[in-house]
Amino acid sequence: MGGGMGGGMGGMGGMGLDNGMQAQQMQAQMSRQMQFMPMGQMQASAPQVPLGRAGEHVGDRVKPWTAGDHYGPVLQPFLIHKLGAKPLLNPLLQPPPDDLGREYLKWDMLHSPNTCQSSKDAGNVSWSSGRGEPATFPRVTSIVLYIERQLASIQINAANKDVGVTCGDVIDGIAHFMRRIVTKDEVDTFGAADKKMAVTAYRRHRSTAPGMPGGALPREMIRMDLLGPYTVFGGVQKSDGLIQRRCNSDFPCAFELLCIQMPMTQSEIRDLQARQRAEEERRRAREEAEVQRREEDIRRREAEVQRREAAQETRQRELTAEDAHSSSGRPGRSVSRSGSTAASSRTSSTTRTGITSVSRSSSRRTPAATVETISDDDDQ
């Protein structure tokens, strides 16, 4: 029995030695494989967990702007209103800070949303990092945006109800809204100045000017045209005053869309200054020409008055000389002169009568002055 037990123990001891040797061999083999394994494969072999953007996790807590459908509930706006919650906006959508130290979005809404860029990306890179981040915290299924210059609101719905409204949904929803056709009723609510601004923007947006979409836009007026020159995305912010005027209540899921004017480049500033100087020079030239024309007109009128006065004085001297010569003559010659004067008077009268009749007949043959002839004379 003892031998059996000893044999059994010896067998077990032999089995234990064999397993230990196998474990040592496997460990040595794994060590050799890890030494020759590339670093990328070692990292890939590690289990992956959704961490969102770098630095999102602090211990066992997750930052509110982590992308994905597994970080908190998605609430409907009416429930947010009932709970009295105040959703926070993603800093990526907010207006740029004064020091431009925080990441923000740059986008001219005249163009498609794929031209939107992040302030941290290179100039030729389209915005991609952060598109899937939630637009608000807590997450909601929809939000409403209002613009100060327009009465219509922008409804932004979540593309995925399990994720909620994302930053990408906001940009895509704004782009879709700006391409909508404007109705006549909406245009009629605008004042004369706003209508003129919209017409000017409509023509500029469809021109061949640099940076304009031109013929890519529809022939009809769209909501983008109603913004005038304020076509740049300026961010989304909470504006209690505007929301109160539009909603008649403090709706928690309503925000203001800021639309700003594209800042001019140095080249555009120089061109504008050159155009302003040229326009100022043309204005001064017109004023100087008008002053010279008026001075010449005054001199011409003064010369005409002087000519008439000189002619009148000459005629007066001639009449005075004739009267003096007539009064110093003989009586007979005076009578004769009187007779000749009477005859001359009759002849003059007859001549004047004939001239008058000719003038009257001439006036009857000449057509009356019209607006066209007056304008022609004025043009000459």
Automatic annotation (TrEMBL):
InterPro entries assigned: DUF6699 (IPR046522)
Basic and acidic residues compositional bias, start-end: 282-325
Composition bias type Low complexity, residue spans: 326-366
Protein name: DUF6699 domain-containing protein
Region listing for Disordered, in residue ranges: 282-380
Transmembrane segments: none
DUF6699 domain sequence ranges: 105-240
Species in which this protein is naturally found: Guyanagaster necrorhizus
